[in-house]
Amino acid sequence: MQSLIFDRVVGTVSPLEFATTICETFYTSLAQGVGTDVFPPNCHANAAVNTMDIEKQDYRFMLSGCADSSIKLWDLAEQEPVQGASGTAEEDGVDDDSYDHPRTTFARLAFIPRKTAHNFGVSCLSWWPLDNGMFISSSFDHTVKIWDTNELTPVHTFDLANRVYTFSISYFEENAYSASALVAVASDQPFIKLLDLRTSSSSHTLTGHKGKTLCVKWHPQEHNILASGGFDGEVKIWDIRRSRSCLARLDMLRTNASDDSATENNLTNSSVRAHSGPVNGLIWDELGHILYTAGNDDKIRVWDMVSSLAPPLNKLINFGPLTRNKYPQSIPLVLGPKYESELQYLLFPSDNGDIFVFRTIDGKLVSRLSRKGSKTSGRTSSMVNAGPFTGTYYCGTMDGEIVTWRPKWERTPVHDFTDVDNIKLAEDDKDFLANLQKTKKSLMGT
């Protein structure tokens, strides 16, 4: 670490390389937050936190939606002191009781009570991609609502007449006269409904699944490409511009680009499946070259979407025998930001309550996150990244908690700085850094 800091000071390591190297250590040192920068205990009153989302402009405001139909808005840049909490506890050496009694918590800006906007549980929340003045919510009460954040009231409601499990937003502007804003909805029906926010109507549907659809996700770069997963174990890739919209079906048996038989029968063969059970998790990487899927067969699969013609290839990456995923409802899969670390990491919430952190390149388990405190049995039902180069994740649970996972730094005990020798060493370090700055300036000719 000291040599890395020295290289950064003298300029042999760029700021991005320095940050990437530091962030690489985060994923092996994630620990549950305690004391500060956490959410209030039982912040959703024992009801499952089904969904969360952080706006991507400042990574400051977070929405959380609950199974009791309530919605909360949090300010992650403001802290509220907890009455009666001690301010002297150190994070090192805390006991389990400390996780239930924080000193400060994130500030709650607004609260939409249960049964006020939605009649049943909130299934999905998402900020509008361009700014935080609007967000969208969906519920098991068959509705998708468009919200004005400033007024905190819904300005439009879509009634889909079916339970809504999740949705995904696509916005792109080709020029000053042509733009599109579509919301793809996965519901309790064997088709995907596309909602057009510009006309406040349903544009069309994508049919082809056999059973309800559990998850949808737009391509991060090609805004007309959509992936969907269903109860039938299939994952379909769609191009909404085509009359025959289905481009390909992911086949778990297709592992070689030279297998022509899989290509010929991909769209018609009834036995093509991505998983042996319902598919309830989807996520693209930032470039859209890789697709990750999760199914009730306890498998996570990685698909190469660009190296061959359709259908894509199963990369056969093994994530080990520990993953458990038996609930036929949408689950969160979260990828660490691509350029945050040298390798990319996938966070997977297992049914046993733990969160597994895998390396995406080979499926190796690098960390297993287990909750501490009085509540340890509720499994994770929602996850969100706190922002690039933070290594911090917020996870909602089935028992009404939002848990903070962040890197744990090794801290030198305070008493180590009280003797004369260490004080003199600190002064010597200051002199060394001052001389180093003078040397750097002279080398740069300033």
Major sheet details: 4 strands, antiparallel
- What is the CATH topology classification name of the largest domain? Methylamine Dehydrogenase, Chain H
End-to-end Cα distance, whole Å, is 28 Å
Question: What's the architecture of the largest domain in CATH terms?
Answer: 7 Propeller
The stretches of 5 or more residues where confidence is low (pLDDT under 50) are: 417-425
The CATH first-level class of the largest domain comes to Mainly Beta
Overall mean pLDDT stands at: 86
Protein name: Piso0_004835 protein
InterPro entries: Rad28/ERCC8/Ckn1/ATCSA-1 (IPR042238), WD40/YVTN_repeat-like_dom_sf (IPR015943), WD40_PAC1 (IPR020472), WD40_repeat_CS (IPR019775), WD40_repeat_dom_sf (IPR036322), WD40_rpt (IPR001680)
WD repeats: 58-84, 115-157, 206-248, 272-305
Organism: Pichia sorbitophila (strain ATCC MYA-4447 / BCRC 22081 / CBS 7064 / NBRC 10061 / NRRL Y-12695) (Hybrid yeast)
Produce a short descriptive summary.
The chain has 446 residues and is mostly beta strands.
